[in-house]
Amino acid sequence: MLDLKVLTQAVGDLEEEDVLDLLNEFVETNPTEADAQEAVVACQGGMAIVGDLFEKGEYFVGDLIFAGELLTEAINLLKPVLGNQENAVAGTIILGTVHGDLHDIGKNIFKSMSEAAGFEVVDLGIDVAPEVFVEKAKECNPMIIGMSGVLTLAIDSMKETVDALKAAGIDAKVIIGGNPVTKESCEFVGADKFTTNAAEGVKICQAWA
């Protein structure tokens, strides 16, 4: 029988071998889909620990990236048991680093953590022009649009993108993230929320879902 608390702690401690051993043994017991969903929730609980430790300065960016990869691995192990998960998608997020900015570490961490939290993420990559966000939003009808940027100039690009989305009548929540974003820049851009922490960003999105 899988001890969910042990699994949560193993994910939180980034103990890859322990997590995979626990899940492999669990899958061999032919668990029900409901049991497998509980295991996913336990893994997500471990990610919350990772996020908290990152906020406290005990974990670093590399740990966040590793945690996202570990969670993806865990979900992939459970996928055969989870069956058809189409109905379990928390929502679609369109994500991209805005025009003029080529940084993607923060975006990639947020993507991994969002997917692990049950979101479908459409990653547009880096240096994404406002019209590409608009075009994809029309195509995907996302619940949330996430914009990332590290450079100060990214703030202007974010504003251009939000203005273009509003002009096109796109009705989605907008979250911006990255080093230069602040409460003031969020208001300037016209976004709904901002974050400088991927784990916090996922919590915001979960509150919207």
Automatic annotation (TrEMBL):
It comes from the Bacteria. GO terms for cellular component: cytosol. Residues 90-209 form the B12-binding domain. One of its GO terms (biological process) is tetrahydrofolate metabolic process. InterPro entries: Cbl-bd_cap, Cobalamin-bd, Cobalamin-bd_sf, Met_Synthase/Corrinoid, Meth_synthase_dom. GO terms for molecular function: cobalamin binding; metal ion binding; methionine synthase activity. Keywords: Cobalt, Metal-binding. This is Cobalamin-binding protein. It comes from Acetobacterium bakii.
